Amino acid sequence: MKRNRHTEEQNTGILKAYERGVLIAELARQNSVTGQNLYRWKAKYSGMEVMQAKRLRRWIVPGKVVANVT
To answer: The whole model's pTM is what?
Structure first.
């Protein structure tokens, strides 16, 4: 199984830097990820706090999303 390189805290921190106006290319270079990963994280974690992102991870089963995530 593939190991996660960045934690939810790091993902949300990187996205908060993006919201402050840092360019995607610069964030990608600083954090050794692709721009596509940043856009994927933005779609998944946008507007979330760290605890919400952790809660989301608990409810996602690989390949399937559990209904009624609150």
So the answer is: 0.61
